[in-house]
Specification:
With about 425 residues, this protein is an alpha+beta fold. The protein has eleven helices and 14 strands. Helix 2 (about 25-35) packs across helix 3 (about 40-60) and helix 2 (about 25-35) packs across helix 4.
Amino acid sequence: MSQKHLEGYRESEISKIKNQQETEMCQELADGLIQKYLTGPAADQFAKWRIRGLTSSILFDGFNYTERRIKRETNPEYVAFFEKLQAHLLDRLGIPDKWYRNDGKFPKVKNWYWNGHFNYDPHMFYKSVEDIKQSFLKELFGITMSIDAGMPEEDLQELQKFMEDTSKPMDRWVPIQKKSILKICHNCGRELQVETDGHALRLVGPCEHPNGYPAYSVEVDFPTGEVVVTNDLRPWFREAWVRLQDSDHRLKSGVFPGDLDLNGTRGVHYTALEYSYDNYMTGYCGNTCPAVWRHPDHPNTLLIGNAPYCDANGDDLDDDHPILEGYEKLVGICTDLWWFSLADKAFIDNKEPLFRLYSEDMGGCYLGTDPTIIEKHPIVHLEPGRYRVTNHHHKVPDGCGELPKIYAVVERVGDCEGTYE
Ligand SMILES: [Zn+2]
């Protein structure tokens, strides 16, 4: 793709993204539907929640889906049916009225199945996995549960049949989407939806990583071995950045849009993978400000991580910058963006950084260090070749300050795969 072509392509992609956020556009669609189906007081009542309810459906579920929902939600027979079904499920599934017991603990939800999701490493977060799961359930059921009136006809018929005989579960599971579940499963990156067989509720799945997301690797070429090591080099790799915004490209490459949610490990993995195709090595490391370490016996291997900051008793070490025993500290990375970045200088020299990407197109987000002033970034000298970074930040426990924490390992795996002038 030529530079000029790319410029137009990028502009159109960015305007597409911007348009998706335009609530005015959604409002117009919503108003059109209301005029079509509703008059009198019902129209006024409907208008009260149209922005919250309707715009999200139009954005994520499509126009026809919303049209169907409005038809049903304005038909008294359907409304009565949905209310009855909801009451039945709440009762049968034992969703608690109060979310905190006197002792501050969460009550259990009966007949609830995780379907493999949320199986996080027990020491991954400052909260226990059980607490994370319970607060998810609290959020899920904390507001009145509603059966989605926009569900397809076949699902509705199945539920109607079930209401006539509730003694046994349905033959299949029917999705009963909540209007908005913003949480995703960190392991698989899925947006979570709920389905029922009438006797139980479960998350739609199964989770693709029921045993947790594994450590993952990506590879790039460092043809000169003069490697810039810093926080953020995206301004020099805008082609990859554009591809990451392009849902058509992601679908073609087998990556579904939800998978790129950066709140999940799968999303950060796929993002790192996309950048690696352009020889940009990057990885999520949280707000850890890691250092880059090298052992004299392994000159082409870099460890990205932090040395211990306290002793075994939990007392802070005196030294502000404690060392990792036996290793040389090459670079410190200030994680304004919670990622680390490495790229051969050959891919940065003679290239214009795309500063506008930050100041305007990305909403003027704060980045601290100006990422476009390349001279400020330190260089690490490595033997030219192909390098692999293996990232397992998501496996490193919080706390345990008496132990070194290594989030990623960069190692030479052979000669460059590409040819460079
Ligand atoms: Zn999952």
